[in-house]
Design brief:
The protein is of the alpha/beta class. The chain has a single domain, classed as 3-Layer(aba) Sandwich (Rossmann fold). Helices cover 48% and strands 12% of the residues. It contains 13 helices and five strands. It has a five-stranded parallel β-sheet with strand order 2-3-1-4-5, with helices on both faces. The longest helix is centred in the first third of the chain and has 25 residues, at 31-55. The protein is globular. The chain starts with a helix and ends in an 18-residue tail after the last helix. The mean pLDDT is 95.
Length: 270
């Protein structure tokens, strides 16, 4: 499948139709083929990140949102661990602290927007304030409904100042989530990741899908697009995300700065 066709399928324009998307979609790839494609994408991403870091004229912000066990952490490990960590800033957003709650809900987010030359990653984000806040009733509808406008304006401001924004919803099926929850309970190295509250959120699956649908539809813009990536098969997910990131880094078109004049005549002494 061509890059253009894949991105068209993943990118959201209007209603994301989450229920109609196959969370186990592989786009015709076999597993071994996907591994090879992913290696090629990563080779390109490594070079593009080096240029972005040297150029320092723009930045890339990756927003990752998903239901529990969709693979946010494993996505970060797979796709970003191969990059230069000096140029990557990863921020997980959990339950707001007392200080954060004393400010507007975007206060804790803006501070972590990536500087020029950097790739920033939000593991959960400001979207929690139109997702969990809505589903759990932490704020009335008249409050969270206004936030779609806030978010669009906030992201547009970042884009206008040179931050390219990519928003990715990892689309995991309810069946695959069950399988991964059971694995967490059975494996000592993963059991620590499970919390009883995960089942409470699972019971509200349909409400969360409604909230995600509204959030994605109302905030996917030309300068801050949403992509819905199938997340049941990690090897297919990784190729999709790597291609999305390569596309946006190529759009930035970073360049190595011109070297100082006269370097051709310099020799390094013994």
């Amino acid at each position: 499948m061509s890059d253009k066709k894949l991105l068209e399928q993943l990118r959201v324009d209007g209603d994301p139709k989450i229920a109609d998307r196959d969370a186990a979609e592989t786009f015709g790839w076999e597993k071994e083929e996907a591994y090879e494609l992913f290696a090629e994408e990563m080779e390109a991403l490594v070079e593009l990140q080096k240029q972005l870091f040297a150029d320092k004229s723009a930045s890339l912000l990756i927003v990752l949102q998903a239901m529990d066990a969709a693979g946010k952490d494993s996505t970060i490990r797979a796709v970003l661990s191969g990059l230069n960590p000096a140029g990557v800033d990863i921020n997980p957003f959990g339950v707001p602290t007392e200080e954060e709650l004393a400010h507007d809900y975007l206060w804790r987010i803006h501070h972590h927007a990536p500087a020029d030359g950097y790739i920033g990653v939000f593991n959960r984000s400001h979207y929690e304030d139109v997702l969990v806040v809505r589903v759990k009733g932490f704020a009335p509808e008249k409050v969270w409904k206004k936030r779609y406008d806030h978010i669009r304006n906030f992201e547009q401001m970042l884009a206008d100042e040179g931050t390219h924004i990519v928003k990715i919803f990892l689309n995991v099926s309810k069946e695959k989530q069950k399988e991964r929850f059971e694995e967490r309970l059975e494996r000592p190295d993963k059991r620590w990741k499970f919390r009883a509250g995960d089942l409470d959120d699972r019971a509200l699956w349909d409400d969360y899908m409604d909230a995600y649908t509204d959030a994605i539809e109302k905030t996917s813009t030309d300068d801050a697009p949403w992509y819905v990536v199938p997340a049941d098969k990690k090897w297919a997910r990784n190729v999709c995300i790597a291609r999305i990131l390569r596309h946006h880094l190529e759009a930035i078109d970073p360049k190595y700065p011109e070297p100082e004049e006269g370097l051709d005549h310099i020799s390094v002494p013994d």
